[in-house]
Design brief:
This is Aminohydrolase SsnA. With 427 residues, this protein is α/β, with parallel strands linked by helices. 39% of the residues lie in helices and 23% in strands. The longest helix has 21 residues, at 406-426.
């Protein structure tokens, strides 16, 4: 079988950290050999890396692709988190149609892969265009070549009919997702979920065998309104409904009492840290050091730059006096993706899926296992991403995407954004 041999690069692994000058051979979608001096076959493609870094493709564990169409949206500054939801986020989601959803997925997926993200977990909501929205997102991401795990955010915000549409959409996509795509069951904030919604989510999880992807305690409003409207805190309601498990993914978790956080951790639920989003929304710093062994990073509605997110996560944790292990947070993204796709993603070893980056990073100081974290925090960035491979296929080469025209994608995105903003203005 024809293969691709990456020669002369420094291959990076995150946990345990290692930086080693070795060659890799890729056949089909997987890494099949790793050695100091591989001999290519007569028909192999040989890529001479000349000391460049071969880095695992990054995993964005919590993103909102549609938010790319809201960039620069001019609205009156909200004076509270509730006002932000009611005056900005929800009206924006209500204005999305299926064409905008697909365009946003292409534009957001393109930005993601150019920043070095090869797998993203997206939590989507478009209450007036529910049916088919995840398929349209997948089509948009497919154009770019990024790997996607997609879910629809079920909520009671649009009534029982809207809730059932959301459940059907998230279940339907999870059943038929194949290849580079998987589906999950998604949910909106707990205070927007009544008891019937929680029951429906439980049934959806049993039907699909997947996990729940949802925001948790992004702001104190989640606990206050959940208690006022439904008689109990979000964590208690989720536990009572058996919705938390090692497959579940809770984003933010910035406003949980220690007793509640401890109960979440005991279920094995993944916690997804989104420091730049939390900072931008002024909802406070989430105590990431307390998130345990199953914690990773997401960008939420900010730019899909995982290098920037990792740097912000580490620096904010230092500022809080609770420094985190940033390499573990990144490596946990690979563990999460490997769990969902049931294949090794992240290790630069034989048998793993070939999701990787070539970084043109000329290190000004020694780059070793001991110094890798400092280079990630203070040196490496999306500007160094020169090439991206997903499933053994080059998707970016010489800093240019190979399957889409960035100019055309940007033009389509601007048109879609203008249409969404116009619908918001007229509603």
């Amino acid at each position: 079988m024809l293969g691709t041999v990456l020669k002369g690069g420094f291959v990076v692994e995150l946990e345990p950290a290692s930086v080693e000058r070795v060659d890799l051979r890729i056949e089909g979608e997987r890494i099949v050999a790793r050695s100091e001096d591989l001999s290519p076959g007569p028909d192999d493609e040989v890529v001479a890396l000349s000391g460049k870094l071969v880095f695992p493709g990054l995993v964005n564990a919590h993103h909102r692709l549609a938010s790319v169409l809201a960039r620069g949206l001019v609205r009156p500054p909200p004076d509270s988190y509730q006002a932000l939801l009611e005056q900005v986020r929800w009206p924006f989601e209500n204005a999305l149609d299926l064409d905008a959803v697909q365009v946003a997925a292409t534009a957001g997926g393109l930005e993601s892969i150019q920043c070095g993200t090869t797998t993203l977990f997206d939590l989507h909501a478009s209450p007036r265009a529910v049916t088919g929205s995840l398929l349209r997102s997948a089509r948009g991401l497919h154009e770019v070549g990024v790997r996607g795990v997609l879910s629809y955010a079920v909520t009671d915000r649009m009534g029982a009919v809207g809730r059932e549409e959301g459940l059907e959409e998230t279940v339907s996509f999870a059943r038929k997702a194949r290849g580079r795509f998987r589906g999950q069951v998604g949910a909106g904030p707990c205070f927007t979920l009544g008891d019937d919604a929680l029951q429906g989510l439980g049934e959806a999880l049993n039907t699909t065998g997947t996990g729940l992807h949802f925001p948790l305690a992004e702001d104190p409003l989640d606990e206050r309104l959940s208690t006022e409207r439904h008689g109990n805190t979000p964590v208690t309601r989720l536990l009572t409904s058996n919705l938390l498990s090692p497959r579940a993914m809770a984003a933010h978790a910035g406003h949980l009492a220690w007793a509640d956080l401890a109960q979440v951790l005991a279920t094995g639920t993944w916690l997804l840290h989104t420091p730049r989003s939390n900072q931008g929304l002024e909802v406070g710093y989430a105590p990431a050091l307390k998130f345990g062994a199953r914690a990773s990073l997401g960008t939420d509605g900010t730019s899909p730059d995982l290098f920037a997110e990792a740097q912000a996560a580490y620096l904010r944790s230092r500022e809080a006096g609770q420094p985190i292990d940033v390499l573990r947070y990144l490596a946990n993204g690979h563990r999460l993706a490997s769990q969902v796709f049931e294949a090794a993603i992240g290790p630069m070893r034989e048998g793993a899926l070939a999701d990787l980056l070539v970084l043109d990073y000329l290190s000004p100081t020694p780059l070793t296992a001991e110094t890798l974290a400092w280079h990630v925090v203070h040196g490496l960035g999306s500007r160094h991403v020169e090439a991206v491979m997903v499933d053994g296929v080059w998707r970016v080469w010489a800093r240019r995407p190979l399957s889409v025209n960035p100019t055309v994608v940007a033009e389509q995105s601007r048109e879609a954004a203008a249409a969404v903003w116009a619908r918001m203005a007229s509603s």
